[in-house]
């Protein structure tokens, strides 16, 4: 037996004994491994799981959202307890197009995931949540920690975050965010999320405001850009965001939280094949939707596949998901190359305005990474978006 501590232990992760050998070692307690741990707790309560996180608590600092309702009851059972907000509809705005979609939009924060994980591990025999400790080496059945200790297990799942995704700059783009969760002096009047408000000045690529109304006077408001370069000037993004907030006549009385990030939107690449331990998982393993940057729908399917049986057979169970995601990637990669290589930054918004004229069910399937062949044809067919470099586009589509 080895004993570990959490850096600043919250109540549920105080001094804890850690077995020498686990069925599952999950490295990185973000969205993907967080969901996997919760799925294991529910479906494999006899599993001995070690979840390792370098931060003081699991989950990091995010608000994760998803479109629609997952048809799989197990997916709903995993997500529903985490969801803090569910809106019945969502809206997008572009110059010349305003559309309200009757697709639900649901979200939860890192706080919700952290609380669920702390509860799950508080009373899980043989399992442990280990925070404030970094993994320095991740091998097939052993993980070395930054205090020099080594933990061993049957299956290691490495989900240390998006920065581990290797992308080729020439073919890829980036999604950059700066967001503030704030309280306003007066009610904002929004009843549902504004997923994309691209009526704001375009800058650094396709730029839009993302607004989640958490309460009558509380909003998460985010300046988002789909850009060719990955540099993020946090001070500049913040100033740009605050000027948009002011332009709406909103006066901030309290800043509750700020978040920012850069996500690769690859134009090529693969999902790491889950053939054997350690499995490269999460955004860093390529388990994502390249054209939206959303990874939650895939994370849920991954978590449920891992938790559907014993650790030893998890790679075999993940094979079907890997095949399904892999066959959908080339189309999404091509869309990214079309966006980032065939449009001047100020024209990119036309691509999304055109997309949002499509049927609602097509849009919902697109976000869930479940587009049908007909959807794919409908996305590409028709008059091309304004500003396209036709020669380059035809070369990419050839
Ligand atoms: C601002 C922002 C908003 C997003 N919103 C959405 C959304 O609404 N919907 C959606 O589907 N996707 C969203 N995404 C995209 C994606 O789903 C998230 O990035 C998601 O958090 C990726 O999950 P992950 O588990 O791969 O990585 P992360 O959630 O980043 O988790 C990785 C974890 O590993 C830990 N770690 C790293 N190195 C080590 C180490 N050596 N040892 C131990 N721990 C380590 C990190 O501290 C972190 O907690 C968003 C991304 C960002 C940046």
Q: Which fold name is given in CATH as the topology of the largest domain?
A: FAD/NAD(P)-binding domain
For the record, the CATH class of the largest domain is Alpha Beta
Number of strands: 19
What is the assembly state of the chains in this entry? single chain
CATH architecture of the largest domain: 3-Layer(bba) Sandwich
Sheet with the most strands, sense and barrel status: 7 strands, mixed
Portion in strands: 25-35%
Mean pLDDT: 93
Poorly predicted regions are: 1-18
What value does the Rg take, in angstroms?
Answer: 21 Å
Which molecules are bound in this entry? flavin-adenine dinucleotide
Task: Report the total helices.
Answer: 10
Principal-axis shape: globular
SS-based class: alpha/beta
Number of domains: 3
Query: Approximately how much helix is present in the residues?
Result: 25-40%
H and E order = EEEHEEHEEEEHEEEEEEEEHEEHHHHHH
CATH superfamily of the largest domain: FAD/NAD(P)-binding domain
How far is the N terminus from the C terminus?
59 Å
Describe the structure.
There is one protein chain. The protein contains ten helices and 19 strands. With 398 residues, it is of the alpha/beta class. It has three domains: 2-63 and 109-166 and 268-325, FAD/NAD(P)-binding domain, CATH 3.50.50; 173-265, Alpha-Beta Plaits; 327-397, no CATH class. It is globular and about 60 Å long. Bound molecules: flavin-adenine dinucleotide (FAD). Flavin-adenine dinucleotide binds next to helix 1, strand 4, strand 5 and strand 18.
